[in-house]
Design a protein that fits this description.
By secondary structure, the chain is an all-beta fold. It has no helices and 13 strands.
Amino acid sequence: SYLGGELFGYEKTPLAIGIASTTDPSKPGPWQKLPRPVLKSDDADARAQEKDTLYKSYIFRDEARTLGAPFVMFYNAKPPRDSERIFAAVSDDLKTWKRFGPGPALENLPLAGAKHGVISGDPQVVRMGDVWVMFYFGAFWKPGAFDTFAASRDLVHWTKWDGEDLIKASEPYDTPF
């Protein structure tokens, strides 16, 4: 999966999520893209909190079909001038995706008096024994920018880590993000 848009520049909205494939990813060569994005901010089923742009997606196969389909996608998205949240979608064929749940799968709230939204994004999900672990990027709901995680037994209810950051800025040039 990839994110892309029609406008030139870094993360120029709107951005959408597309799918590309190749028969052998170990060999250089062109990938075949689906003709249209699989998720867009103006889709009929897009939630209010994802009506501006969609960002990084992460897809994995869940043989147990915990959410009712073999493929699960987590991605971050946001409405205009607000916080980025992490959402879920499911698919039977990697081509047609259905948003899962009534709202964000995971979100964090801004600090009191914040002048801008927060970022919960770039999710990556792995299975560790009987627990799903979502590693993700965070910024602005507490000082700085950092990597953190949340854990779930069902891919729906997530317990966010509240200990030390997994990774945080170690150099001045890393402090914004």
